């Protein structure tokens, strides 16, 4: 609904530029990375946890992969970085689910540590040497006239959707989010489920960071930090689209699309960039409030 | 007594959604009197107290306090009149000193706009001395035992001129020495003219301490007399409503309901099981097809025992399933031993309100709804099972996809039970399975439990409702303060006897086992 309104408004304001196939593809391409990182983080939010380290992890993964490219096979470099992302998720999950730190504080600490390590590793410089051409092509080329990054996003979201809605693991995640104590009494291994959620978020954040390097053909400190806000805004917008205010993958995609269309439209219409920040912040607050109200109505 | 009573409640009626919680209850407390309020769980004690505290308003009846008619009572007005309540959760701030806690909620003495600590401590120690409480006002709450904390709570309650003190189960978690200390302080209150309403399950203590005793049963006042006119047996008779004469008549024509066939190992066996601080060295066995009822007062350890059998809490000692030692560390390890568990608190531990009926039923054994070799759930298989459950248990809901929160309490409880019914179990632990559900649903639960027993499941039926245990169980085990104190064949026992074991006043009846 909101998406439709936005599209109509922007189409009326700039009929020559906004409602074109090219621009639609461009919006999809822009949100592809947001879609991936928000999709992974949805798994954590489903269980009532937060992961504030995703932005820093994306930055970290980008710097890591860019640093590894000159010294090893590019496939191995990417693989190693993704494994690293999963490991960071495992550590966050352990701190939260086993040690018992609140996920908010635990992942904030993790985020700060990752930022520190990233600066230490690069001394604040941008890395752009030794990035393979074929890797950069990932972000430039299309298959069936749809950008490869969009295909990757759709693939990841499809897998996440199936996992969350049609498998045992996903059902248990929703149960943990619905009533942790009751899930435990029904034999669900709560710590393991929560750790798994953080590992999924870690994997997706690392993948986002890696693909960001392909898009920018360089890795910069703080490059991925902005994903944190955008991802949460997208996820909560998505939850507000569902009847019960529950987090779900199609909603997250919808939220990412709304964010993408709004930002794209505002840029085309010529809204100054600082208004875009204000819009993002307001959207996050509104979306959280709306999904919260929906959820309360159930209980 | 010609003195004006401190508190006079007459003809108090309170209804909750059609059920009568209090039925024309009269309740009078004199100045300087220790008045014990007794009754089983659900008798109406806490409803009566909550009316005094201004939390509930009564539907009918009058309240007079110090000779003045009270028209309406809010928590604030109740406080202004001088009524003070100490609940089981003491609500003390652990990192504040004793003095700060005593004065908390009142005006702190100040000098130059800063807190005047010397005056604060002096004021606090004046209160402590007045009631003979041997605690320094400077010590931190954290370092005090629960017993000492109760004394601080009393001092706080009476710091600002209270004249009626209500204490809810003050001695439930205290050691013997702490109890003695507490009771000494309570006795000293009457010299200052303070009236005390004292709620406790420990009957000897009540008879020793109180001047007057009021007993409630099923929302009505069944006795109100001087403590000196009562003994423990007449008290329990009042509480259960069974006259002493009929006590022994019930239990004569009995063979054990279930004779386990020799040779088969018991479904579940506790061998010296302890849970730290809660259960001490409990041993007994449950045969297949046997319904074993476990009862006891709050804090008797019955819930902990059930939780240990489902791997929810750590225990020492051995638990055997089908004659083999079972290592029950988590619920899933218990489920692997084919143990099922229905928890005590449905809302908190049982249901997932924002999930559908279908998802709630299939949660524990999701794997059995998956396509072979994968983890993908077949929703059609789930729906089919849930529809069967809805028919066989008569679960009333809009359909398999109805949100669980839209179901009534009784139906929600049936959902929690139905989770465990499509798999065969060796043992089923039911903790208060009929709490908060209506009479019809309760009978259905009983029927279901008997059916499961006939199918060979060993059932551990935990309940604090003795009548319920007597109705459903083949055998009754009584726990008191974490120890097994009685193991009775149901037909050979009376509710009275079971209650005596619960309260521990059985010295002369031990031979009946």
Brief write-up:
The complex is a heterodimer of chains A (299) and B (513). Chain A is mostly helical and 299 residues long. Chain A has 13 helices and 2 strands.
Description:
The complex is a heterodimer of chains A (299) and B (513). Chain A has helices at 2-13, 21-46, 54-68, 74-99, 103-122, 133-140, 148-166, 168-178, 180-185, 190-216, 227-241, 249-269, 273-298, and strands at 142-143, 146-147. Chain A contains 13 helices and 2 strands; from the N terminus they run ααααααββααααααα. Chain A has a domain at 21-224. The mean pLDDT of chain A is 88. In chain A, α11 (227-241) crosses α12 (249-269). Chain B has 513 residues and is of the alpha/beta class. Chain B has 2 domains: 7-244, P-loop containing nucleotide triphosphate hydrolases (Rossmann fold, 3-Layer(aba) Sandwich), CATH 3.40.50.300; 268-512, 3-Layer(aba) Sandwich (Rossmann fold), CATH 3.40.50.300. Chain B has helices at residues 45-52, 75-81, 98-103, 117-130, 146-159, 176-191, 203-209, 232-240, 302-309, 331-336, 346-350, 357-362, 379-392, 409-418, 439-454, 466-472, 495-503; strands spanning 7-16, 19-29, 34-38, 60-65, 68-70, 83-86, 110-111, 114-115, 164-168, 195-199, 212-217, 220-226, 268-275, 279-286, 291-295, 316-321, 324-325, 339-342, 427-431, 458-462, 475-480, 483-489. Chain B has a 6-stranded mixed beta sheet with strand order 6-9-10-3-11-12, with helices on both faces. In chain B, strands 18-19-20-15-21-22 form a 6-stranded mixed beta sheet, sandwiched between helices. A 4-stranded antiparallel beta sheet of chain B has the order 2-1-4-5, with no helix packed on it. The radius of gyration of chain B is 26 Å and the shape is elongated. The two termini of chain B are 46 Å apart. Residues 244-261 and 507-513 of chain B have low confidence and may be disordered. The A-B interface holds A 162, 166-169, 171-172, 174-175, 178-179, 181-189, 244, 246, 295, 298-299 and B 310, 312, 330-332, 334-335, 341, 343, 348-355, 359, 363-364, 366-367, 370, 374-377, 403, 405, 419.
């Amino acid at each position: 609904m909101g998406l439709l309104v936005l599209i109509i408004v922007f189409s009326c304001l700039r009929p020559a530029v906004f409602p074109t196939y090219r621009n639609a593809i461009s919006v999809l391409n822009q949100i592809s990375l947001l879609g991936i990182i928000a999709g992974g983080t949805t798994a954590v939010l489903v269980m009532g946890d937060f992961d504030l380290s995703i932005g820093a992890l994306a930055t970290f993964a980008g710097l890591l992969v860019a640093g590894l490219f000159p010294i090893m096979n590019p496939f191995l470099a990417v693989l190693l970085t993704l494994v690293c992302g999963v490991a960071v998720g495992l550590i966050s999950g352990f701190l939260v689910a086993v040690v018992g730190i609140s996920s908010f504080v635990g992942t904030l600490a993790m985020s700060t540590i990752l930022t520190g390590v990233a600066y230490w590793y690069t001394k604040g410089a941008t890395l752009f040497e030794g990035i393979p051409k074929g890797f950069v092509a990932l972000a430039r080329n299309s298959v069936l006239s749809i950008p490869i990054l969009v295909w990757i996003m759709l693939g990841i979201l499809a897998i996440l959707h199936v996992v969350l809605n049609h498998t045992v693991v996903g059902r248990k995640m929703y149960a943990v989010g619905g009533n942790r104590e009751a899930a435990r009494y029904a034999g669900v291994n709560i710590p393991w489920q929560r750790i798994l959620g953080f590992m999924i978020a870690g994997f997706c954040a690392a993948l986002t960071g890696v693909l960001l390097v392909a898009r920018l053909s360089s890795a910069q400190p703080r490059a991925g930090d902005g994903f944190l806000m955008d991802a949460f805004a997208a996820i909560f917008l998505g939850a507000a689209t569902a009847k019960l205010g529950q987090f779900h993958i199609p909603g997250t995609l919808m939220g990412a699309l709304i964010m993408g269309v709004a930002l794209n439209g505002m840029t085309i219409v010529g809204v100054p960039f600082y208004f875009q920040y204000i819009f993002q912040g307001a959207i996050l607050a509104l979306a959280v409030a709306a999904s919260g109200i929906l959820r309360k109505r159930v209980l | 007594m010609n003195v004006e009573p401190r508190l006079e409640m007459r003809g108090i009626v309170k209804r909750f959604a059609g059920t009568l919680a209090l039925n024309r209850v009269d309740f009078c407390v004199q100045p300087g009197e220790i008045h014990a309020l007794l009754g089983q769980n659900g008798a109406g004690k806490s409803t009566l107290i909550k009316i005094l505290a201004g939390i509930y308003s009564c539907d009918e009846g009058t309240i007079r306090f110090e000779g003045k008619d009270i028209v309406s009572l809010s928590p604030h007005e109740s406080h202004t009149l001088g009524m003070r309540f100490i609940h089981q959760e003491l609500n003390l701030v652990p990192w504040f000193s004793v003095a700060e806690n005593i004065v908390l909620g009142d005006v702190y003495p100040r000098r130059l706009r800063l807190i005047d600590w010397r005056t604060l401590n002096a004021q606090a120690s004046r209160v402590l001395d007045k009631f003979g409480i041997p605690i320094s006002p400077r010590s931190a709450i954290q370092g005090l035992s629960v017993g000492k904390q109760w004394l601080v709570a009393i001092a706080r309650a009476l710091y600002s001129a209270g004249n009626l003190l209500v204490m809810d189960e003050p001695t439930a978690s205290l050691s013997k020495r702490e109890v003695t200390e507490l009771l000494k302080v309570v006795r000293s209150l009457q010299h200052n003219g303070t009236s005390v309403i004292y709620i406790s399950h420990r009957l000897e203590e009540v008879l020793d301490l109180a001047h007057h005793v009021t007993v409630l049963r099923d929302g009505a006042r069944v006795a109100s007399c001087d403590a000196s006119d009562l003994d423990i047996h007449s008290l329990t008779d009042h509480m259960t409503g069974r006259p002493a004469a009929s006590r022994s008549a019930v239990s004569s024509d009995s063979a054990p309901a279930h004779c386990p066939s020799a040779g088969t190992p018991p479904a579940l066996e506790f061998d010296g099981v302890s849970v730290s601080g809660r259960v001490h060295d409990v041993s007994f066995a449950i045969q297949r097809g046997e319904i074993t009822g476990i009862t006891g007062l709050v804090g008797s350890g019955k819930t902990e025992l059930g939780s240990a059998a489902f791997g929810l809490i750590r225990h020492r000692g051995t638990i055997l399933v089908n004659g083999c030692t079972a290592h029950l560390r988590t619920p899933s390890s218990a489920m692997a031993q084919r143990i099922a568990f229905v928890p005590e608190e449905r809302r908190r531990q049982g249901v997932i309100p924002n999930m559908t009926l279908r998802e709630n039923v299939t949660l524990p054994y999701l794997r059995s709804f998956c396509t072979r070799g994968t983890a993908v759930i077949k929703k059609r298989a789930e729906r089919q099972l849930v529809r069967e459950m809805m028919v066989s248990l008569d679960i009333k809901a809009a359909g398999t996809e109805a949100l669980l929160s839209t179901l009534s309490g009784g139906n929600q409880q049936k959902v929690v039970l139905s989770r465990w019914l499509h798999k065969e179990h060796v043992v089923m632990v039911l903790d208060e399975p009929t709490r908060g559900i209506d009479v019809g649903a309760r009978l259905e639960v009983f029927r279901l439990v008997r059916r499961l027993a006939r199918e060979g499941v060993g059932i551990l039926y935990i309940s604090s409702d003795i009548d319920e245990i007597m109705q459903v169980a083949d055998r009754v085990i009584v726990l008191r303060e974490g120890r097994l104190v009685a193991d009775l064949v149901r037909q050979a026992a009376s509710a009275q006897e079971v209650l005596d074991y619960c309260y521990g006043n059985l010295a002369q009846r031990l031979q009946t086992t």
